[in-house]
TrEMBL record:
<protein>
    <recommendedName>
        <fullName>J domain-containing protein</fullName>
    </recommendedName>
</protein>
<feature type="domain" description="J">
    <location>
        <begin position="18"/>
        <end position="80"/>
    </location>
</feature>
<keyword id="KW-0143">Chaperone</keyword>
<dbReference type="GO" id="GO:0051787">
    <property type="term" value="F:misfolded protein binding"/>
</dbReference>
<dbReference type="Pfam" id="PF00226">
    <property type="entry name" value="DnaJ"/>
</dbReference>
<feature type="region of interest" description="Disordered">
    <location>
        <begin position="68"/>
        <end position="116"/>
    </location>
</feature>
<dbReference type="GO" id="GO:0005783">
    <property type="term" value="C:endoplasmic reticulum"/>
</dbReference>
<dbReference type="InterPro" id="IPR001623">
    <property type="entry name" value="DnaJ_domain"/>
</dbReference>
<dbReference type="InterPro" id="IPR051948">
    <property type="entry name" value="Hsp70_co-chaperone_J-domain"/>
</dbReference>
<dbReference type="GO" id="GO:0051087">
    <property type="term" value="F:protein-folding chaperone binding"/>
</dbReference>
<feature type="compositionally biased region" description="Low complexity">
    <location>
        <begin position="83"/>
        <end position="96"/>
    </location>
</feature>
<dbReference type="GO" id="GO:0036503">
    <property type="term" value="P:ERAD pathway"/>
</dbReference>
<dbReference type="InterPro" id="IPR018253">
    <property type="entry name" value="DnaJ_domain_CS"/>
</dbReference>
């Protein structure tokens, strides 16, 4: 790093400029000679006298301000020595190296930050997609459950309507054969065949009722299965959210 004196010296004068050559004097001249040389050059390059020489006039003033003060003149002479210039170059190099290292360090920190931020964004996107997919699956399961329930209810209603219609037919038919256990003879062959068909139909409808009851039980089992699937999907979603909150807590 540059020392305080070096920075202070740079602020007061430019050691790369030869102020003695600017004033046309040597290092051994005293203050009166320096003052006379300054007045002569200032009069020569003054903007009122010689326009277009403003830079030269400023340069003469700068040289006189440094050399007219003994303390500043000593610091300037010391800074102009080869050893001092070598030390100054080393200090400049150290300062430049430190700034370069600091710049590289900040650049690496910035790269790490953006890399970590990119990783977090990718992970957030993956979690969001997983949750979106889970929500879609849950909605699809709910839709399938509602559709199956509606089909099941429609099928039951149809079967019940059919059963009620058949029961009404049985009742009307049974009025003619209310004493079927005691009846042994029939008035005609058609009456006997009608009775036998009634008995077969009665047995068939009883088997249909048993099948309807079994279908109801299986439908209830399917609905319970859909409820369990929905519950499991909810548990998976809660676990996924807990895992994500845990990971976010570790990355902070």
């Amino acid at each position: 790093m540059l020392s305080y004196k070096s920075l202070y010296g740079i602020a007061k004068f430019n050691q790369l400029k030869d102020y003695y050559a600017i004033l046309n004097i040597s290092k051994t001249n005293d203050q009166s000679t320096i003052k006379k040389a300054y007045y002569a050059l200032a009069k020569k390059f003054h903007p009122d006298v010689n326009q277009g020489k403003e830079d030269k006039f400023k340069e003469v003033n700068e040289a006189y301000e440094v050399l007219s003060d003994e303390n500043t003149k000593k610091e300037y002479d010391t800074a102009r020595t080869p050893q001092s210039q070598n030390n100054q170059s080393q200090q400049y190099q150290q300062y430049y190296d430190s700034r370069k290292y600091q710049s590289h360090s900040q650049h690496r920190q910035g790269q790490n930050y953006y890399q970590n931020q990119n990783t977090r964004n990718q992970f957030d996107e993956a979690i969001r997609r997983a949750q979106e997919h889970l929500n879609q699956q849950q909605q699809y399961r709910q839709y399938e459950r509602m559709r199956a329930k509606q089909e099941y209810e429609d099928r039951i209603k149809q079967e019940e309507m059919y059963a009620r219609a058949r029961d009404q037919q049985y009742k009307e038919f049974a009025k003619s054969y209310h004493n079927e256990n005691k009846r042994k003879t029939f008035y005609s062959q058609e009456e006997k065949e009608a009775y036998e068909q009634f008995v077969r139909q009665r047995e068939f409808e009883e088997s249909i009722k048993e099948k309807i009851q079994d279908f109801k039980l299986k439908g209830e089992q399917v609905m319970n299965g859909f409820s369990n699937i929905n519950k499991n999907l909810g548990d998976i979603k809660d676990n996924l959210g807990s895992i994500w909150n845990t990971i976010k807590g570790k990355n902070r």
